[in-house]
Design brief:
Elements: H1 2-11, H2 39-140, H3 143-165, H4 168-185, H5 191-207, H6 212-224, H7 239-250, H8 255-269, H9 285-307, H10 311-328, H11 333-346, H12 358-384
Length: 385
Amino acid sequence: MTEDSKPATDKTPEKQPELSKQPEPNKQPEPNKQPEPNKQPNALAASIFHVLKIILILGLIAAVLAGSWLGWSQWQLWTLETDRSEIQLTSLRDSMDSIEQQYRLDQERQAIQSKQFQQALTDLQLRSNSQGRRLAELGSTTRSDWLLAEAVYLTRLAAQRLQTERRTKNSLALLSNADQILQELDDPDLTPARSAMAADITALRLAGEVDVEGIYLELNSLVDSIDQLSILSAPAQSEAEQQSAAESIEESPTPESVLEGFSQQLAQLIRVRQRSQPIEPMLQPEEATLVRQNIRLMLEQAQSALLREQQVIFSRSIGKAQSWLVQYFQLNPSAQVLSDRLSELAKAQVVQQLPEINTSLEAIETAIVLRHSRLMDKTELENQE
């Protein structure tokens, strides 16, 4: 038994390569031959391994699909979050820009307001300083200062009225009042101012004054009297001569009466007078009206030249009116008086000579400045002590 079993065990390794062969279905196993013990476990392990492999592959596929779906969904969520973040970031940037712009506007507005406030504060400070100085001046102002201020006002008013009114009367009165104020002060420092004031008063008195109102009114009266003058005309026939001529015409005409009537009519047509000027033709009524109107216009032109102080136009207008008066009007007493007055008016001076009276004003202002400077120096010395 032991010998038979040994060869069996020895033959077993030689038949192992044939285990992989599957038995034929119609072939019956040998009865006396024992089956191989490792054949069924290996097939089971292979089938299990195959199933596990399939399960593993399916699990990997499912894991890949699940991972892909999860990644896609996460990517969608990330995309939405990114878009939402970009929108929020854009709105935040816009808000920041608007806030920054508003901040700049506020800064500029505050800078402008600060400048305005500083300017207003500076103006208030300057006004306060000027008011303080004014109060200090008013506190230290004496009667002499008020009188000097009044003298300056009167002198300045005299210069202005001299230029506007172009008359020396009112300016002379104002300077006289200012000189009386300086005389009342009786201050030796005002001697140069009084000297300048006296020079201006003397210049006004020497300049004289043109009576513009008197000349204008006289010319106006002469214009009104032109209509009362008589134009040169032929002497009128007397009533007796006219009656005798009519009677002679009614009587029977005779050669003597006809000759006498002709001589009378010829005597009426021709008059011989002694004249120093050439004989001119008589004026018609229309021409007489035109001459009167021309003389009136010349006198009105002389009035306008008087108001504008145009000496040449004034003299020529009156001279032309006088020449027309002598030429076309009868030289009766009234016409002679009118002609004489026109001759006198033509020689009148209508240009008002205006002197410069600013010297006295400058002298008084200089005296006031020197007076204030001395007072300021005195105040500073007292403060230093």
